[in-house]
Amino acid sequence: MPKQKTHSGAKKRFRVTRNGKVMVRQKNRAHILEKKSAARKRRLSGDTVLAPGDAAKIKRLLNK
Asked: Does residue 1 carry a pLDDT above 90?
């Protein structure tokens, strides 16, 4: 049987840590940045952990 392909869109947006958590970029950091304060932009700069229910779906797309 052929190998399962990884979902191309998912592999660009999500990553799975060694402990199995799914990390994703935070929202509100893509555009209209002039009106947002520097502190807010700094806080949004890091990745965040995806909710467990959503993480299960993403892991299926990533074959993890």
From this structure: no
User: pTM score, two decimals?
Assistant: 0.83
Q: Helices (DSSP H) in 1-64: which residue ranges?
A: 8-13, 38-43, 52-62
Compute CA distances 29 → 1, 15, 41, 49, 53, whole Å. 42, 18, 7, 16, 24
Report how far residue 13's alpha carbon sits from residue 57's, in angstroms, rounded to the nearest whole number.
13
Domain positions in the chain are 7-45
Q: How far is CA 6 from CA 1, 9, 10, 12, in A?
A: 16, 9, 8, 11
Residue pointed to by tokens 């979902």: 7
